[in-house]
Each structure stands twice: as C-alpha cells, then as structure tokens.
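[Q] Does anyone have a clean structure-token version of this?
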Amino acid sequence: MGKRKKTPSKSSQPSSIKSQAMTDANALKLTRCHTEEYDSQLQQKVDAVKALIPQAKDAAWEVHASPKTAFRLRCNFQVWHEAEGEKLHYVMYDGDNEKRTPLRVVDFPRGCAETQRLMPLVLDALRGDDVLRDKCHEVRFHTTLRGSSVVVLVYNRPIDNDKNWKTKAEKLAKELKVVLVGRSSKFRITLNGDAPRVREKLRIAGKDVNLYQLEGEFSQPNGRVCEKMVTWAARGGVRASSPHNAVDAQVERTQSSKNDLLELYCGNGNFTIPMSRNFRKVLATEVSKANTECARENLTANQVKNVQFARLNAKETADALQPDARPFKRLTEAAVDLSSLKLETLFVDPPRAGLEPAAIGLARSFDTVVYVSCNPETLADDVEQLSHTHDITHAAVFDQFPYTRHCEAGVLLKKRSGVDLSTVPEPRAREKKKSKRYAGKRKGKGKGGGQAKKGKVEEAASGGDSGCAVS
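[A] Here you go.
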C-alpha cells in the first residue's frame, strides 16, 4: 500500500454530486473482477517483467497466480458526504484520471469475504448516526485469512474528548465483532481490542505461521499470494519437489544450516519467521519501531529462538557490518554479536523505491541474495547493478494485484566466483522519476503506506490498549 492522496475535506466537497460524475459504471474498472480476462492480463504482466530483466532470460521462472475474486485483505475508501444529510457513499479515485472525479463504490468483489460483509454494515452505521458520521472522511478495512478484522474510522475533527462518539463507536465495534480504531489529527483510540492490530495465520510448507499485523503499518494485501511468496523465498527460489505429494513437500533449504541469514526491511517478520527454519541464526533489521516490537512478539508467538531483530535502516545495517564500524547502540541493546554471525545469505523485500546504494554495496558481498520486489522497474535497476557480481538462477512473478498493472517479482542471485569487488562500479543513487516503463502514469505506492505522519500519535488507553504507538 502506498502513500495516501490528500482527500478534500467535507467543506471542500460540492454540496451535491452530479449524477454523471458518480455512477456505478465509472468505478467498475477499480472494483470488478473480470475473471474472463484474468489469465491474459497475468500473461501480459509476466511478459512485461521478463522484458524488464534480460539478466533473467536463462533463469528458471515461476508464475504464481492470485485467486480471481475476494483476494484483497486491505482496502481504504474515502467517504463522500452528499450535502449535509444522511446520504453518503464510499468512493474511490482513478489514479489515471487527473480530474480526480469521485467514483461511487457500491460493492467491492475484490475484497475478501469479511471485507464485503463489513462494508455495508459500517456505511449503514455512519448513515444512521450523526455522531459517527460527522466529518468521517475515510474508512479502512484490514482483515486476515483467519477472519480477524480491524475497521478504522478517520475524522476531520477532534474525537479525543468526544465521550458520545466513544460510546457509540464501542457499541458498533462489539456489534460488528471487530477491533475498531478511531483516528483524528495526532490521535488514535482502539476499541474492543487489546491493540490496533489483527492476527493472521499463514500456511507455509505444511506449517502454520502466526503473525500480528499492526494497523497503519505495512502488511501484504493478498494473503494467498503472500503464502506463495514466502514459500518461494524460504526455499531460495527453488521449487520444492516431492514424488508423492507436491502440496505437502517441505521447503528446501536456501543455504546450509551452518550459515546465517541477514534480512533488511523485515517489517513484522512475515518472511523472517518461515525463513528462519533454514538457518543457524538470523539477523533481521527494520526501521519502524512499532513493527520491530511487533516482530519480536511474533517470534514469541511462533516459538522461534534463532532470530534477533534490531531497529536499523538499511544504511545503518551496512555501516554496522563494515570491519571498522563504530558501535551501534541499538545492536548492543538487542544483544546482537556480529562477530558470532556467518552471514552468507541476504533477503530483501524493499519499498517501491528499491535498494539504496548502501544496500546495493552490501548485497554484492553476499554469496546468495533473495530479492522480492513490489516494483519490477526498480528491481530491474537493482539487478543491473548487481549483475556485476551475481547471476540470476531463479525468478518468479507473484500476482498480488489482479486487474491492475501491478505485480510483485522475485529473483534469486548467486555470486560468481573470483569477482574482484574493487573493480566493480560504485553503487549509484537512483534518480527520482515517475515510472513509465512498467506502471505507466499510475503513481507508485510504497511500504510506508497507511502510516500516520511522522511525529507522535497520541494513543488513548481504552479496551486494554497496549499502546502500539506509531512513531
């Protein structure tokens, strides 16, 4: 999910909506599942990704399709207030339409069954209660494969001291059987739950992986494709094979268990925990304080003991691994002893912007790099820089976003023997420009999406809130 576009406040919306400006038909390309076109659209994506990465022409390719309907676990909708009355609608905006015309969403078959259940119930609640409705400009749904759900109501007015709102919102949360989060400027309150989060269960190589996912922090939006991505990464891009039952085949080891794994941009441990089965030790780094704390909780929930998390960004991690590195307080606090690690495999799943120069330089020193990307264009740029030292042996396309231009891709890179790093060009910074080769004019979305603005968000202690603050 990416950075949200600014939404006009209620006062800036027209007093009424022209019928031709908001019809069900206008929203069809953003909401409908054109299942008869799915296979051809997926093939077009595969062809586009292969054209972007000529270095993978001799690689073993895999294509992982999505369910054709009810696949999306995270959905955000703007709320359009028509005049001053009770008539309001969910709306979306077409990123290809510069006029920013609101498109009414009546239903959303791309959303999972739980999202489809909740959408009309939440809208009816807003329509029927002026306190809940007043200046609510966005509704967010965060659901999981196991059925856990968070509904977020976002307001253009203060709600922190509104006891009437809290009473009504808490009643709604219990009726819907969800965790309900209320947001206004620099304020967040969690109702009917211990924290603003959901619980997910992924099935990876015949084993369950239990994960907390935080509201406002990145998580994979397509759960079934996420399971395929994690499985692929965990076996290092090599398809698991079994002469008896391929479905139950165990994940092959990415490397010998005598070696260790470094992961950058680890988030809540979505990849970390399943991949840890294949390594002696794992060091995973993440810049988000909230996600780092969540990742540690997920370790405990899965009884994993060979992983250490540290709150570092990619450049800090690269700097810390230099021979003459200064001490890093956060590594010390996490009791990380770098000298005890034999890091030979690197896993990265970076934001849409791709790897920064420090991460490219670090990757060149690893024997094996497993790279999963939500932006094939920046993946192609990074692969070009890594091609001075590595070859692609395996590659994959994951259709996280059916019926859009977007997909995810992965490559497994092996370092060539005898490479002299002193002769390799210095990593270069990527120019900031709008994507044209892959995503057309559609604005890219990165992993920072759905997060609060920088700065502290005041957390209201309600319903046993554990205070997972966004900072």
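[Q] Thanks! Anything notable?
[A] Residues 1-21, 237-250, 435-457, 461-471 have pLDDT under 50 and may be disordered.
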